[in-house]
């Protein structure tokens, strides 16, 4: 037990991580892209017409709607506020507000901007409640119910549209052969990922989620981080809702019934930790893509609706459990 | 006591216990014994091995080697239920009672051989007997536990242990959070237990309690136990001498006379949790050390300066202007940094990389218009890592994987980018290996040379004695003495934190 002995053990302790840890790290980083690649290979090999352009196009537009909202939800999860249960209602609100604005003559770019601002404000309102200590799940559940109730009250449950304005090109035009929503999806993913990785506010969101107490002692305000994250979710659901509305040319309060669960599934399959701190919007985007391809393959193989839903559920459980167990090993 | 046979007059005998955690030998070939009706006190500094022995006896930790006999028979107590079945019970520091349930209900929680149905009358009758045994006869069995005082909860904890018919009761610093009067009460309950033939292991940091109740004292040092001695045969000074043994003085950096102006001045500062106002001075470029046992309040002064505990009165001035920091973020902005004592819970981001940990509190300073420059962030973090002797080749790996010593270096280096004037640290080397300790001490001294004022609170008197320029001691919520380090011998310092009368 001499001093010499102690120094030597310290040196071993700081030597390169043991094999199991490196394997764990590798799995955390690469499991999703590899799984995605594997699914693609299997899909192409076993599914005639999988790579056909019309098929891919369908997958991509569908992915864009879920993916944009999932990318927007990621900061909320990163900040340690679990998930929002009002994703469906927020996107629906965006769609339902979008058409009346156009109908009264607001120019399209301004209408899009206004919808984004309104949904950002809805985010601030929820963020404030969560920041003062309300449970995020309960707050967003309540917010969803309120949004749905008010929207139904105002529209009277009728279909809203703006027949005089053509919006379908927003969803259907295909510069360089890819549908416009894909470009929007990619752009929003890049911007949000940069926001989280490169801006002071974005970093604080991750810090608050990684360890709220350490973050507080480091001068990071959990309240501001929470509000900022809900604003990003507001913007994401606004864009997602507009894409859906534009594609359909109309909207009702009953649109997008499964969006919330799909979006949460995309975030979790992407590997963002539900307790916060670790993950990225890019991962959620890949998660959305993964789920979309998986569902599409099953659709092309004529699996029934029930089987497809159950399989996606199983995929979420497997990814979350595997990543959870491995992350415990790695840290 | 019935199964006590003639082969052994020891109720409990442990021989050759060893336990190793990674590089740390927590217990090394420890022998320990306990007769019936005897109170044996365990003494030793933090990390000396007392709590590991308690964990082994209570079945929470399995020793690497060694045997344990109860009543002369070797026993297997490798789980807490086995340990309970063998008649061993632990009165925890942290209360394991459930606040929303009544006193009587708590007393039967986790109790073996309960009747099929508890009637209210049966429950309360049993509770009254137990409460009377621990001097809580004034409490109605129907009272909710959350309405009790800390001392009453501690005594209730004892009553719970009694309800399990334990033959060996371990007390783990039962009085750390209690006032002098409440302490009396707990001590008299312990004495009563011994009179009834129950054997008691009493872990404490307070010497007067040892002399008040113990028959023998077992002293731990670096995982080894010295042969136990009868309390009648020793005095306070001998016990302290035995605890300290020989020390490596070279671990600490040389003190350098950098007596600058007084830049931290506390005048009659009333701090929530301390029973008397505090007056203290620290000069620019010195290390002010605050020491005392757990619950003595030494940490509260640091917490108050860090805006983590309220200041109720008096004045604190820093560089001549009154400190005004309603919360941690404002304090940080004005150059007061604070390193918390609980590394895992509030000192580091275990899952994030070293760079992200280091930069967490000064991101804005490497950002332009809110956008962080990864190049500047990494370069700044690398320079702080290098200055704290953190391996710079691993800046990208997560802090949770580092050794305790390296984690602590990260926890300390995190604050360097905030241009600190006042560097507050609690327990700077808790759970840190020897090599990293001397790095940390050298760096804290280095900060002083850069003109910072460092305030350290620690329950490790050796560390405070070796490191600090001015030392204040705390006992039971009072600051009892402030002197320059050269006026303290280590023995006097230990005596001051363990014993109010010998200041």
Could you please describe the fold and organization of this structure?
The complex is a heterodimer of chains A (331) and B (503). Chain A has helices at 3-13, 19-46, 53-78, 87-103, 108-131, 136-155, 168-172, 180-198, 200-210, 212-217, 222-248, 259-270, 281-300, 305-330. Chain A has 331 residues and is an all-alpha fold. The longest helix of chain A has 28 residues, at 19-46. Mean pLDDT of chain A is 88; it is low at 1-17. Chain B has 3 domains: 10-244, Rossmann fold (3-Layer(aba) Sandwich), CATH 3.40.50.300; 249-335 and 420-498, Rossmann fold; 351-417, no CATH class. In chain B, the strands form 5 sheets. In chain B, strands 3, 6, 7, 8, 9, 10 and 11 form a 7-stranded mixed β-sheet that branches. In chain B, strand 7, helix 6 (180-195) and strand 8 (199-203) form a beta-alpha-beta unit. The longest helix of chain B has 16 residues, at 180-195. Residues 1-7 of chain B have low confidence and may be disordered. Chains A and B meet through helix 1, helix 9 and helix 10 of A and helix 10, helix 11, strand 19 and helix 15 of B.
Described by its quaternary structure, the protein is: heterodimer
In terms of DSSP E residues, the strand content of chain A is under 5%
Instruction: Please count the helical segments of chain B.
Output: 17
Per CATH, which architecture of the largest domain in chain B? 3-Layer(aba) Sandwich
Number of helices of chain A: 14
Tell me the name of the CATH class of chain A.
Answer: Mainly Alpha
The name of the CATH superfamily of the largest domain in chain B reads P-loop containing nucleotide triphosphate hydrolases
Distance between the termini of chain A: 29 Å
Calculate the mean pLDDT score of chain B and round it: 86
